[in-house]
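Query structure, 231 tokens:
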């Protein structure tokens, strides 16, 4: 009898697709949700890696041009008031307010320095919002996916015990499929959560460094304009 049971268990299909197909509707929904969350997370990760690399490249190129000695007005005329890059947007915001702060007679309107600083701060805040968009999704997936998978596991094991009670049979061929299906949900939960947590931490640090570079540039640029205001 035991040999027949082992033979029957060995004949069962324990591939991932077979485990999914045999799972209950609730467990299938859990697995589907976790797979969707995993793909969503990876799409965000890939998009952010590309975006951050482009932002670093643009900031480095603009920094080189900015400190090359080219006049600020000439540089502003080249990039225009609606540039694409983040560093250029911060510079453009400062220059636009700088020009608006001049009266028709060439004098400066009072409070020009504070307005220039605020303009650049707003530009930095907008860039920060764009850089960090999507990161909360990674944080949510990383913190909730294991528990969603655990819910699927608990539900699957509960269903397995119900099957055991209904058939009044504790043979391996009866127990193994339900347990395997339940554990698959936990595995998918971890598969979704672990990369999400790792890349959330990495991308958050990358975003902070890029934003920190914008803030450092804004401080340096504000210092240059301040010298001209005091001249």
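Result returned for the query:
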């Amino acid at each position: 009898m035991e040999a027949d049971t082992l033979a029957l268990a060995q004949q069962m299909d324990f591939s991932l697709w077979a485990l999914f197909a045999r799972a209950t509707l609730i467990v299938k929904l859990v697995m589907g949700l976790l797979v969707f969350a995993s793909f969503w997370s990876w799409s965000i990760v890939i998009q952010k890696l590309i975006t951050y690399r482009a932002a670093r490249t643009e900031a480095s190129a603009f920094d080189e041009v900015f400190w090359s000695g080219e006049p600020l007005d000439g540089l502003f005329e080249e990039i225009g008031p609606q540039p694409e890059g983040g560093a250029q947007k911060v510079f453009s915001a400062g220059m636009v307010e700088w020009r608006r702060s001049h009266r028709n007679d060439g004098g400066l309107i009072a409070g020009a320095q504070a307005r220039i600083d605020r303009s650049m701060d707003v530009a930095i805040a907008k860039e920060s919002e764009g850089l960090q968009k999507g990161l909360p999704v990674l944080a949510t997936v990383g913190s909730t996916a294991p528990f969603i998978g655990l819910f699927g596991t608990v539900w699957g094991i509960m269903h397995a015990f119900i099957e055991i009670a209904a058939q009044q049979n504790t043979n391996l061929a009866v127990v193994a499929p339900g347990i395997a299906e339940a554990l698959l949900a936990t595995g998918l939960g971890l598969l979704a959560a672990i990369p999400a947590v790792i890349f959330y931490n990495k991308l958050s640090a990358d975003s902070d460094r890029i934003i920190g570079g914008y803030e450092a540039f804004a401080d340096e640029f504000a210092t240059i304009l301040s010298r001209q205001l005091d001249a």
